[in-house]
Hints:
Elements: E1 5-8, H1 10-14, H2 24-37, E2 41-45, H3 51-63, E3 68-74, H4 77-87, E4 93-100, H5 103-110, H6 114-129, E5 135-140, H7 147-160, E6 164-169, H8 176-189, E7 197-202, H9 209-218, E8 223-226, H10 240-249, H11 251-254, H12 265-276, H13 297-305, E9 325-327, H14 333-342, H15 349-365, E10 369-370, H16 371-382, E11 390-397, E12 404-411, E13 417-424, H17 427-439, E14 444-452, E15 461-469, E16 472-480, H18 483-505
Parallel strand pairs: 1-2, 1-8, 2-3, 3-4, 4-5, 5-6, 6-7, 7-8
Antiparallel strand pairs: 9-10, 11-12, 12-13, 14-15, 15-16
The structure holds 3-methyl-2-oxobutanoic acid and zinc ion (ZN).
The site of zinc ion has 6 residues, from loops.
Amino acid sequence: MNKVIIFDTTLRDGEQAAGGTLNLQEKLDIARQLEKLNVDVIEAGFPASSPGDFEAVSFIAKEVRKPIICALTRAHPQDIERAWQAVKGAARPRIHIFLSTSDIHLIHQLKKNRDEILATARDMVTKAKKYTSDIEFSPMDASRTKPEYLYQILAAVIDAGATTVNIPDTVGYAIPSEFGKLIDGIFQNVPNIGKAVVSVHCHNDLGLAVANSLEALKRGARQAECTINGIGERAGNASMEEIVMAITTRKDFFDLTTGVDTRQIYKTSRMVSEMTGFPVQPNKAIVGANAFRHESGIHQDGVIKMPITYEIMDPRVVGIPSSSLVLGKLSGRHAFKEHLAELGYSMGEEDLNRAFTAFKELADKKKDVTDRDIESLVAEERRTVTEVYHLERIQVTCGDCGMATASVRLGGPDSKIHEDAALGTGPVDAVYKAINRIVGVTNSLTEFTVKSVTEGIDAIGEVLIRLESKGVTYTGRGADTDIIVSSAKAYMNALNRLLSSKKKTG
Ligand code: KIV
Ligand code: ZN
């Protein structure tokens, strides 16, 4: 009764965020991590939307066996068929049908009347029910739908077999007390509501997605749809870590539980940020870099005396690694492997060997190697892109007395070594131009950011870039103690994504 079902839609609504495309391997890695986090449902994609989504849902359905795997579909017979084909290999498959119900959408977008929509909703749930017993229905734009009509639709789809009815605040328009009343109204006015789980799906356009979700849970909803780091369409979705930690930290208030293993939260957040290329803002609740940092002297004094004075959560509960020195130059492979395991990383021998070599190189350059450095290093080793070109070496000359020059050496697809050089307005420009001379694909750089992983002049610098080619955005990341090398690695990472997607699509 008091357990909240955590429905993670990072791979569907989260991936819908502009510029957040993931490749198949990354989707699978995230799904496996979500399984470790112990979410109840993973919405793996929208199979009819693209062959890539279809493939990802089928793959995850077969590989990730513990949670329910859900496929989203429009209320169209062919799309439902496609959703089923993709998800049918799951241990516990779910089909999630959505259909707009607000007058705004009916009049301006669908050009259908309420009776037609009601009939479609009922018929499509009946159709999907032939494939699986686990059916979710979402009346899209529910928070702007006339409540009486919403009650009617919900009663009809439950009658047709929907086992979860989801109430989306699609455009992030709701206010918590008002959204809470809508949930009360549903419980009071939908006669068969006891036969379905009430779910909520809130967007963050007014910054209220988590507040609205929590209000709904307080009023009896028992499924929360959310994403890691709150990523998603426009301003994003309700953030999973915030919902889960609010419920956990304020158990006295909510009297609810979740099955989430909170110690996996930080790692999942880092993984999603790393793979989608969406950085987490420093002041982000729960997982931001400053979320557990105390700057004021009075606060520091209090925390040293007794953490509870200014810390409402123990950072270890969400799996935040310490930033103290953990390993040094003399640490062996065994200690390195054990430490990785403590941080929750398990690696095959080959990956481990590569990560250990990278660690030794780092320890030679950097005095203190912390958990954060190790995370960055592991992410670097795990960048799951098929390498068409491989960065072998770069050499740069730059300064304020002439143009920057760069020479690069790349390993090519034909196992040949390619070398070239270029001039640029700065070192990064010169490196990118030299790489372009070899790789030869037209693209434009749309985003470039660099940040340091830890404090200190010898810190690792992580570079995130986005480039665009033929209207498609590709993300690239690279890390090194030399930020020009990080920049080159990030560029190669994005170019390899571009080249391997080209290969796939012919
Ligand atoms: O925001 C929304 O309404 C959705 C539905 C498909 C559930 O994402
Ligand atoms: Zn949504």
